[in-house]
Write a structure and sequence with these properties.
The chain is α+β, with helices and mostly antiparallel strands. The protein is built from six helices and five strands. The strands form two sheets. A three-stranded antiparallel sheet has the order 3-4-5. A two-stranded antiparallel ribbon has the order 1-2. The longest helix is centred in the first third of the chain and has 21 residues. It starts with 5 loop residues before the first strand and ends in an 8-residue tail after the last helix. About 5% of the residues have low confidence.
Length: 205
């Protein structure tokens, strides 16, 4: 095992280093090991106008994350709610396959206690969920997106030069708004969300 001296970043629960494990006999040492994701965090893509993904890339990223959350919710022996799903904790490999990381805050909770919608709206609009440098009515992304939706201006927030397929973005925006409603009982399950992202489920009522 090399010295793991190359620091990649720091989080609340510790520092992340890059290294290669050549032998698995680590004795008393314990390591939490992730594969190296060459593209880096989703945050670096979304909040940089030059790197913001196009609509087809956005829905692929969203579907990858939804598939990962569905696994945690329904396919693990005990249901796990990550509790900290955000662009900083989503990483992409060289094929732009998105994977969830940072399980510092997972808990065993009921499924209706989490919302995928905020992340989805951040992916669509390439805006941070809260940005107090903006005007008061624009600062909270989900509230502004819902206001725009009500008046039929859901594309008002988009970076126009990155739009490829508005049908895809329309679907993502509607799912995001549905998932961010105040009443948790009306939120769709992750299975339904994934089906909607894949175009297999069409009801938004």
């Amino acid at each position: 095992m090399n010295d793991f001296k190359e620091e990649l970043g720091k989080g609340v629960f510790g520092t992340v280093y890059k290294g290669i494990i050549s032998n698995y006999e680590k004795g008393p040492q314990r390591l939490l090991v992730y594969e190296y994701m060459r593209v880096g965090s989703l945050e670096k893509l979304l909040f940089n106008a030059e790197n913001c993904p196009n609509s087809h890339e956005k829905i692929q990223i969203a579907s990858d994350v939804a598939r990962g959350i569905l696994y945690l919710h329904e396919e693990c022996e005990a249901q796990i709610i990550h509790c900290d799903i955000k662009p900083q904790n989503i990483f992409l490999d060289e094929n732009w396959c998105a994977k969830i990381s940072d399980f510092g805050l997972p808990k065993l909770l009921k499924q209706d206690q989490t919302s995928f919608g905020i992340l989805l709206l951040e992916i669509v609009y390439c805006w941070k969920s809260v940005d107090w440098s903006l005007s008061e009515h624009e600062a909270v992304l989900d509230a502004w997106a819902y206001t725009c939706f009500q008046v039929g201006e859901i594309y008002k927030l988009l970076l126009e030069d990155k739009v490829v397929d508005r049908r895809i973005l329309d679907r993502m925006i509607k799912i995001g708004i549905w998932c961010t409603q105040d009443e948790p009982s009306i939120h769709p399950s992750m299975r339904i969300i994934l089906q909607m992202l894949e175009g297999k489920y069409h009801s938004f009522t």
